[in-house]
Amino acid sequence: MTNFMPVPNPAAVTCQTCWVLVNWDAKERHAAWHSAGLVVESPGDQAVETIAELERRGL
């Protein structure tokens, strides 16, 4: 299960699995990526690049 932490921006949250800032509207999709193993589950740039690639592919 992916948990999210509030941030000062009310339209976003931080994923506590990969520490990426996620739009509030996309948090369920982001959690589904982790559940499917599509997102690198470690902090840092690799997770950000992976998410960007998934978004480019429309996932």
DSSP strand (E) fraction? 15-25%
Mean pLDDT: 75
**Total number of β-strand segments?**
3
Q: What separation lies between the terminal Cα atoms? A: 19 Å
What is the molecular shape?
A: globular
Number of helical stretches of at least 4 residues: 2
List the strand order in the largest sheet: 1-2-3
Largest sheet, described in full? 3 strands, antiparallel
Give the fraction of residues assigned to helices. Answer: 25-40%
- Low-confidence parts, pLDDT < 50 over ≥5 residues? none
What is the gist of this entry?
Helix content is 37%, strand content 17%.
Describe this entry's structure for a reader:
The protein has one domain (4-56). The protein has two helices and three strands. The protein has helices at residues 27-36, 45-56; strands at residues 4-6, 12-15, 21-23. A hairpin with a 5-residue loop joins strand 1 and strand 2 (12-15). It is globular, with a radius of gyration of 10 Å. The protein starts with a strand and ends with a helix.
